[in-house]
Amino acid sequence: MLQSKSFVRKTKQGKVVKVVREHYLRDDIYCGAPICKVCDSSTARLSPSASTILILDTNVVLNQIDLLENPAIDDVVVLSVVLEEVKNKNIAVYNRLRTLCSNSTRKFFVFSNEYHKDTYVKQMAGESPNDRNDRAIRVATQWYQSHLGAAGRVLLITNDRENKRKATEEGISAETVESYVKALGQPGLLDLLVQPAPEDVGMEEVEDLRPSKRKVIYSEHKPMSEITSGLHRGIYHQGKLRVNRYNPFEAYVGSESIGDEIIIYGRGNMNRAFDGDVVAVELLPQDQWQEEKSLSIADEEDEEEEDVHLVPSSADDAPRNTDLAQGSVGGTKAVLCRPSGRVVGIIKRNWHSYCGSLEPMPMPAGNGGIAHALFVSKDRRIPKIRIQTRQLGNLLDKRIIVAVDSWDCLSRYPSGHYVRTIGEIGDRDTESEVVLIENDIDSRPFSSQVLACLPPLPWSVSSEDLANPCRLDLRHVCVFSVDPPGCKDIDDALHCTTLPNGNFEVGVHIADVTNFVHPGTPLDDEAAQRGTSVYLVERRIDMLPKPLTEDICSLRSDVERLAFSVIWEMTPQAEIISTKYTKSIIKSCAALSYIEAQARMDDSRLMDPLTMDLRNMNALAKVMRLRRIERGALTLASAEVKFQIDTETHDPLDIGMYQIREANQMVEEFMLAANVSVAEKILKHFPLCSLLRRHPSPTREMLEPLLRTAAAVGLNLDVSSSKALADSLDHAVGDDPYFNKLIRILATRCMTQAVYFCSGELSPPEFHHYGLAAPLYTHFTSPIRRYADVIVHRLLAASLGLYKLPTIFQDKAQLTSTADNLNYRHRNAQMAGRASVELHTLIYFRKRPTDTEARIVKIRSNGFIVFVPKYGIEGPVYLTPRGEKGGGEWVVDEQQQKVKKMDGSISYSVLQTVTIHMEVVEPQPNRPKLELALICR
């Protein structure tokens, strides 16, 4: 059957055209129920023994996805109208629903009601799209009941009171989510429920959720219409809220409209906004503006007082939460010069699931076993979350996941619901799982569909590969790899041979991952979603399955492997004479660690071909590095930590700063050169759809903390360009050898994030990579562990005429979306790696209290942030003990970057060396932390 509808639209040229859309309806779409006597049972997805088949409305899916993911909920029909509506409203929930529907162990069946002749409904005159969709759901439910007859019961699950009333009037069995779950007789499932809003159900059903105190704690958020108008008129300012990791009562909103960050201090001014929310901010009167450096470090035990959430109408009404929200110093007001504001509305929420534990509390008496508990997130930036649970006794000693449902202006805390239990508090595996969940890292085993895309093992280079005229045979060349010790996913190798004319042939050979990962396959889709491999202290979460990462694609020694090569002819002065790009076959003669390669180069007794190639390559790399620095490339530093892990217990045995050798720098130099060469090649052929990587120049405001610190220690840094900054850093030397590295670490923290982008989205001047001082850059050298490199390999192959360019490159919006996901995944992988380091640092110091030296890197009114060079650790040191009443007042000297006692007897300045004591403490239950305490000597 064919349904047609027509409408007219106006083109860009001003012409009016008639558009006719055809909608085909069928009568052979199966219902998916094995109990059905009419449909083909081979297509059935529901249980043969299902006594009740559930049909869900859209709001149930949107709000109760945590419940639906529980195995107790099965035999669910997902209507196509619901699927489409969920996709339009929440893509994250849509993806979770699609995963449920494609999981062979779950009984979820998608029924195309919009294409079945008996269930398709037209929108009636005066009917809203939402009412039409609700009617379509009821019609489909009624059809299912009629279709199955007495063979099974069909139940519509809806929390929409009006939809439920109409369903009952039409003879359809309908229940709310809560009533259905209660009937299952599994009390723990009730904890998963998102409590319905009062307008959706009778008030008596939510009476127990009301906060006990009904006074207004927060200001009402402005309606979106008023926010939009205010933004247009410049009254409000839009930006993403970032909460200070050391002080959850202090946040910042970067605002393009005023060209500066707006400081938000106090929970009241944050007005129920979470870290990562896009918010609308109203500036406070200028006499309430505050200097950022005067703000304090929050103590772990600090908690909101009764009126801390009240939005101040004047400076006298400001929150009384010690000096954390207002930022007073020694009883006097701070210097007021930075824009300060308050949140007036939420434009886009960043709520997700959070990991943590319940605040200890006694078991409740009566009330049907329901306990109202406070959940404390491991992330201190997240406020406590109020939940209700029927399994308090089982949860008090566990790490659990909780999702936020709402935050009423009458409630001190947001309300949420329990999602699932992770494991015992303090268990290393549990805490590592928390790291992955908090950073949205997918660590699930690869599906059977993904694994089916892999070639069978054992794999070897085939005769077809050897005979391929487009693949250069380089098995005779002395190719070698240099990687960290124990590296198994080797995706790059090198060679350097002397040519008769005295020049060098230098090759960078990268694992030919795209020979095995084909566009549009489940393997490719999975890699695109994961975006990158994630490296934790004790394990690696792969982007691709291990048969590829550690065997088929890994460029191990003494085995033939497929590669994608960039080969240069270079002069002894490292000038590039020519560049060649080719698919190749290599046989690595050695897989060296950085330590082994360095030892070979340093041992003057060794004169073998491999060692000579290493020395020649290192000599070229030094010239290339010097030339790159002369162009303005920055040599920055980071506090990278290396752990020695016990092979049996997986506990850390030792911890220290990661040592960089010449061998590391040699490999890095040629990887950078290959990435630049490939960027030039793909952009020349595909100027509008190349995937590149840019590093935006930092703004003067971003560099201000570095400049202030440098000035305080007598340094004058020129930040007018990357070249000027690089030269300034080279001259920033102090009395001790660590001074320069510390300045470089501080400079690193002022930098913007490098990001992937589609070349068609920006103009060429914006392609620039500030840190590398390169006009063009991309990622080509790590396709085993980065999906960006997979994309670039496909672009390079297409530019050489080896393959046709995949269709994604014709869709700029899709390519931009892919780049956005890669940036998100890359950032999360970095954060997970750091969190893993923090976790293992806690484990290491749990039984090892230590005294050591530290350097002050940031001044605050009640202490300072220090960096511990020996361990690569950063944390707060408090000067003012909690509850101190007098004689402990400290004041910040902004100009000299010092904090000193009011009487001038003691002072501490930025970059000063201090001695500290490090010890793991637990100031709050289930929240261990590494405490850094000053040792006064």
TrEMBL record:
A molecular function GO annotation: RNA binding
InterPro entries registered for this protein in UniProt: Dis3_CSD2, NA-bd_OB-fold, PIN-like_dom_sf, PIN_dom, RNase_II/R, RNase_II/R_CS, RNR_Ribonuclease, Rrp44_CSD1
Start and end residues of each PIN domain: 52-165
Species assigned in the record: Vitis rotundifolia (Muscadine grape)
Stored Gene3D superfamilies: 2.40.50.690, 2.40.50.700, 5'-nuclease, Nucleic acid-binding proteins
Cofactor: Mg(2+)
Pfam families found in the cross-reference section: OB_Dis3, PIN_4, RNB, Rrp44_CSD1, Rrp44_S1
Family: Belongs to the RNR ribonuclease family.
CDD domains: PIN_Rrp44-like
Main localization category: nucleus
Compositional bias (Acidic residues): 298-307
SUPFAM superfamilies: Nucleic acid-binding proteins (SSF50249), PIN domain-like (SSF88723)
Region of interest (Disordered), residue spans: 291-327
GO cellular component, as recorded: cytoplasmic exosome (RNase complex); nuclear exosome (RNase complex)
SMART domains per the UniProt record, alphabetical: PINc, RNB
Record-annotated RNB domain positions: 471-802
Keyword field: Exonuclease, Exosome, Hydrolase, Magnesium, Nuclease, Nucleus, RNA-binding, rRNA processing
Localization, UniProt: Nucleus
Name used for this protein in its record: Exosome complex exonuclease RRP44 homolog A
Gene Ontology terms: biological process: nuclear mRNA surveillance of mRNA 3'-end processing; rRNA catabolic process; rRNA processing
